[in-house]
Every structure is written in structure tokens, then in C-alpha cells.
Amino acid sequence: MTLHTAVVEWNGNGSTFTDNRYSRAHRWTFDGGAVVPASSSPHVVRVPFSDPAAVDPEEAYVAALSSCHMLWFLSIAAQRGYAVAAYRDEAEGAMAKNDEGKEVVTRVVLKPLVTFTGEKMPTDDALHQLHHAAHDACYLANSVKTRIDVEGTWAYDTAR
Predict the structure, then answer these.
(1) Whose C-alpha in 77, 85, 100, 108 is 20 to 30 A from the C-alpha of 19?
(2) What is the DSSP letter of 116?
(3) Residue 41 has pLDDT above 80, yes or no
(4) Could you tell me the pTM of the whole model?
(5) What angle in degrees, to the nearest 10, is found between the helix axes of 57-79 and 124-137?
């Protein structure tokens, strides 16, 4: 078993907390030293009580799912002999009410554009299989209830 940690810190800076007019800005510190400014989403808590420049938990959730998928995709592509020159995903997460009436991230759509280089190019079917294998292996995709769809495309980089 591995343990993954993050420190989440918030300071009210003397705000009158009980009037609900306090900043939701906080920070995440990870074990490698990365510090990320975080906040509630301005879609959930209005500015100035949210910081739109900071990462909100919903964005981080989408990014984490995308990142996990990408890392597995790159690993599996390398194992199968495909040379990946670039990978860009403009992932989206949709929030809606679930069957219990709770607001949740109901669907995440990964939209990776994978640029391949070299002699071996995947067919559309092979690309689909790469994404399926990455999704199947992704720890996070296996840990959540959210529907995750992959609508990937690919390109060939002849300059490399």
C-alpha cells in the first residue's frame, strides 16, 4: 500500500467567520514541495469570497483524472512501440444533480489530442484500444462513480 498526502491550509485572517463572508482562498502543499493556490469555485461561491485565479476542487478533480489517464496512455503506448511526441487534453467536467438530488460531477470528458511520430502509427482501432487500456488501468478512474468518456484524436508529426 502506498500513501499519498497533501496539506490543505486556510487562514481566516480575522474575518467574521459566522457571517459567511470569508475568503475561501487556501493552499495545497504536496510532499514534493509544490504549493498550489486553491479556492472554492466562483460558480459555487461568488467573488470576492472565491479566487478565480486559484484551482478549485472541481477543476483539480478533472485535471487529476486527465493526468492519470495520460500517464497510463503514455506508458502503454511506449510498451506497444508507439512514439508519442505530444499529448494535450482539454478535459471537461460537468456538474448536475444525482438521483439523490446532490450536486456532483456527473461526467468527465477527456479530449486528448495525441501527436505521434516515428515509423509506427496507430490505426483508429489501435488508438481506441490504447485509450481503453489507459482508462482501465487508471487508479482514479477505478476509484470514482463519475462517468468518464474519452473522445481522443491523434496527429502525426512529420517534423520529428
Answers:
(1) 100
(2) E
(3) yes
(4) 0.90
(5) 120
Which residue is it, cell 472541481?
A: 58
Domain ranges of the chain: 1-55, 57-156
pLDDT tens string 81-128? 999 999 999 999 999 999 999 999 999 999 999 999 999 999 999 999
Residue position matching grid coordinates 475568503: 23
**How many residues belong to the chain?**
160
Do 122 and 153 meet the contact criterion of CB atoms below 8 Å apart? no
Q: How many CB atoms lie within 10 A of CB 61?
A: 16
Measured distance CA(29)–CA(36) in Å, rounded? 6
Residue 72 and residue 22: Cα distance in Å, rounded? 40
CATH of 57-156, one of 3.10.180.10, 3.30.300.20, 3.20.20.370, 3.20.20.150: 3.30.300.20
Residue at 105: amino acid letter: V
Q: Which amino acid is at 76?
A: I
pLDDT at 13 over 90: no
Contact present, 133 and 72 (Cβ < 8 Å): yes
